[in-house]
Structure prediction request, 116 residues.
Amino acid sequence: MTTTLTLTEGDVVRLKSGGPRMTIRNIYGKGFEVDWYDAANGTIRDLCVLYAKDLFERLDVVVSPPEFKIGDWVTLRSGGPEMVVVAADGDWVTARWQSGKDLNTVNLPPTSLTRV
Prediction:
């Protein structure tokens, strides 16, 4: 008997075949979106995955979504650079970080982040 993995926004997952730790951004129907930090390029990547929950293993579960305010230092739950919150409206958090000479900005749901 096969057990279907139940995933929650903010859970940290990885492909069973390996690869980076990823944070679940959104879940809809049988699909979901994940974010992860690409250290080689200094960027946060995202991916939409449909009908593939059985390819993943859960590494960490989000207990309750935290609230963030401007000035908080955060990182992706799955790991990555330290970022500063520049805007937060409850549903989305805008954070910035520097990678080399580049200043990067990302918008993520609070369930994807944790305080540093």
User: Anything to note?
Assistant: The chain has two domains: 12-60, 73-115. Strands lie at 12-15, 22-28, 31-38, 43-50, 56-60, 73-76, 83-88, 93-99, 102-108, 113-115. The two ends are 40 Å apart (CA to CA). Residues 12-60 form one domain.
